[in-house]
TrEMBL record:
CDD domains from the UniProt entry: crotonase-like (cd06558)
UniProt cross-references to Gene3D superfamilies, sorted A to Z: 2-enoyl-CoA Hydratase, Chain A, domain 1
InterPro entries in alphabetical order: ClpP/crotonase-like_dom_sf, Enoyl-CoA_hydra/iso
Protein name per UniProt: Enoyl-CoA hydratase/isomerase family protein
Pfam families reported in the protein's UniProt record: ECH_1 (PF00378)
Superkingdom in the source lineage: Bacteria
Native source organism of the sequence: Streptomyces cellulosae
Amino acid sequence: MSVQVGPCKDTGAGGVTVVTLDRPERLNAIDLGMVGELQDVWRQLRFDDSVRAVVLTGAGERAFCTGLDRDAVVPQPDSPYMADDPLLRVGPKANDLWKPVIAAVRGAACGGAFYLLGECDFLVADTTATFFDPHTTYGMVSAYEAVLMAQMMPHGEAARTALMGTAERMSARRAHDIGLVTELTEPGEALAAATAAASVIAEYPTEAVQGTVRALWAAKEVSVAQGFAQAPHLVALGNLPGGRQAELFRARRREFRVR
């Protein structure tokens, strides 16, 4: 199993469950198996009344999530009018879960990780966390990711993150300064801090909490839907052929600036 679900062992917080992306050897990159597991987890949590708040994190110290696994083979229909993006189905909101979900971020969060972060209600991170979007470096349009980032941070910060590619990473401190991250912790303490916040929320009346989550998402879902409607066309027009993307990936620079 590449997704683990269970209570937080450190706190034993009642009503809180922790969902862990568990592929640390692949920096918690999402393969098609993990897509299916995440869908199943979110849908099961809809029916588990004992779970009133959720914490989402990644296993290991190096990464929260690095997006879609580059070795994943995603079959595509032979039609210019249809495209399959499996990451559109990995988030809690996409699976109709309206319980609060808090992200606990340690290490790198990049690219397709924003499909998950963009559907969390708020983020807690430790000082090792970094955020970046590699798409443009490899000749790919950052479309869905950019739409979600634009809901989570000021426009200039979202634009810089999407356009600078692998040359630059946003530090946890900068992310906290701009409001992307709501709480900054010492290394290794983000999960405990996120669980502590979730445990407070889990004590409140369920209907009021879930209604508030739904209201907050309603405030931005029209913008997300409109942006997503444009995304397939922008990707089709702007993405380089797969072979050329692979060449750029192999030739990418290894050094980067953290700001």
